[in-house]
Write a structure and sequence with these properties.
Helices cover 34% and strands 15% of the residues. It is of the alpha/beta class. It has three domains: 45 residues, no CATH class; 258 residues, Aspartate Aminotransferase, domain 2, CATH 3.40.640.10; 105 residues, Aspartate Aminotransferase, domain 1, CATH 3.90.1150.160. The strands form three sheets. Strands 1-7-6-5-4-2-3 form a seven-stranded mixed beta sheet, sandwiched between helices. Strands 10-11-13-12 form a four-stranded antiparallel beta sheet. It has a two-stranded antiparallel ribbon with strand order 8-9. Helix 3 packs parallel to helix 9 and helix 9 packs across helix 11. The radius of gyration is 25 Å and the shape is globular. Bound molecules: pyridoxal-5'-phosphate.
Length: 459
């Protein structure tokens, strides 16, 4: 083995190729860049192909020009508004574009910021509701002494809402889902509300199934409530996936700032905003809905600029990537990409349904998610975990998991179609899916009664 650490040592002839790459203590001497690059890249080789990962909502493809631009702007710090004033303007422009896309009525002045993702965005939205609830009580001459604020949401919430409630000591009130209500049960929701409700969250794209809450109907209920109560209810829309999809594919659907009581919306730029992770956005319909206590000033060209993010320093390259997509695709470009993705999702759903084995929960409606369970009378000896294993052998990652609380007897499988799943990749998936079913039906399967621990099989 060659000890020489110079550029011209063949990587696999070097001492380093003979050692573990993962260290628990820094090596004393440096390693050449060439060797480091190769060995680290190799270390990550077996993580699976991100493009075949149908488990994630997160973007797995960007154009080379976008990647180049992002790579070349990594050093820009999004919080340094005076050092990078043009970058700050790019962010403002993104916020303005989203305010327009989410149909902010003219009489309002939308305000917002980029975040690391929807989770940070939801924290900010939740805090704004909490502070506003407190301020409104003060205005009414009521104290908050001994009061426990609560947040109302369907049990299909993403874990970030549980985090929000734990971190900021809010009671999470779950409106349960059942077989007939795979999104928030709007007729029940007001039963969960009281004077200490800081707001209701509507979900545009329930993570488990891709279903939409009926936000228009929710808004009507809230209007009725507000007409009869001094305590004012507001709606936040968690549009992590849907808020960058629906405006292009179903622009007539009212779920956004057109609705009277929707006061804030978050989205993940790294989901259907088509940017690599992590970038998210949170907008308030008007300054009135973002209490001043949550706004901090950073210096900006000798002056001050308001910021409301939780995080401080982070690279601005994701913001620039988001703007690249906005600028490059325009409205019609996003629409074309999303419509095509939805078409692929519907085709995948159709072939899965045609096997007759599955009960379909989502066939690519709303957002391009295909979600299904095995029919109770399907009479097959394998289960969805086995199918997930089989698909994985062909490189496809398609998770199987239980639905949330109250429905957790049902195991589902979910396919998230993304912009980079073109029609011909979609067909390749369908072919593999059929092949996997055939193999499973013919396989000698280890009998498993307990779905949780054993689901391997042998030939
Ligand atoms: C993905 C998701 C989140 C969290 O988004 P991140 O950007 O990953 O932090 C929150 N809510 C919903 C509904 C989601 O689908």
């Amino acid at each position: 083995m060659l000890k020489n650490n110079g550029q011209d040592v063949p990587v696999f002839g070097s001492l380093f190729a003979d050692e573990q790459v993962l260290l628990s203590k820094l090596r004393k001497e440096p390693v050449s860049a060439q060797v480091s690059y190769r060995l680290l890249k190799d270390q990550l080789i077996d993580e699976g192909d991100a493009r075949q990962n149908l488990a994630t909502f997160c973007q797995t493809y960007m154009e080379p020009e976008a990647s180049q631009l992002m790579g070349e702007t990594m050093e820009k710090n999004a919080i340094d508004k005076s050092e990078y004033p043009q970058t700050a303007k790019v962010e403002e422009s993104c916020v303005a574009i989203l305010a327009d896309l989410w149909q902010t009525p003219k009489e309002y002045k939308a305000i917002g910021t980029s975040t690391v993702g929807s989770s940070e965005a939801c924290m900010l939205a939740g805090m704004a509701m909490k502070f506003r609830w407190r301020n409104k009580r003060k205005e009414r001459g009521l104290s908050i002494e001994g009061r426990q604020p609560n947040l109302v949401i369907s049990s299909g919430y993403q874990v970030c809402w549980e985090k929000f409630c734990v971190y900021w000591d809010i009671e999470l009130r779950e409106v349960p889902m059942d077989k007939d209500h795979l999104s928030i049960d709007v007729d029940q929701v007001l039963d969960y509300v009281d004077e200490d409700t800081i707001g209701i969250v509507g979900i545009l794209g329930i993570t488990y199934t891709g279903k939409f809450d009926d936000i228009e109907k929710l808004d009507k209920k809230v209007t009725e409530y507000n007409a009869n109560h001094e305590h004012e209810l507001v709606i936040h829309v968690d549009g992590a996936s849907g808020a960058m999809f629906t405006p292009f594919v179903d622009p007539e659907l009212p779920w956004d700032f057109r609705l009277k009581n929707v006061v804030s919306i978050n989205t993940s730029g790294h989901k259907y905003g088509l940017v690599y992770p992590g970038i998210g956005w949170i907008l308030w319909k008007d300054e009135e809905y973002l209490p001043k206590e949550l706004i901090f000033e950073v210096s900006y060209l000798g002056g001050k600029m308001p910021t409301m993010a939780i995080n401080f320093s982070r690279s601005a390259s994701q913001i620039i990537g988001q703007y690249y997509n906005f600028y490059r695709f325009g409205y019609d470009g996003y629409r074309a990409i999303h419509e095509r993705t939805q078409m692929v999702a519907k085709e995948i759903a159709k072939t899965i349904e045609e096997t007759g084995l599955f009960e379909m929960y989502n066939k690519g409606e709303n957002i391009p998610i295909v979600c299904y369970a095995l029919k109770e009378d399907s009479k097959v000896k394998w289960n969805l975990y086995d199918l997930a294993d089989r698909l994985q052998m062909r490189g496809w990652q398609v998770p199987a998991y239980p639905l949330p609380k109250d429905l957790d007897e049902t195991i589902i499988q979910r396919i998230v179609c993304r912009g980079d799943l073109g029609k011909s990749r979609g067909i390749a998936f369908i072919d593999d899916f059929h092949q996997c079913l055939k193999e499973l039906n013919e396989a000698h399967i280890l009998f498993h009664e307990n779905r949780d621990d054993t689901y391997g099989f042998t030939h």
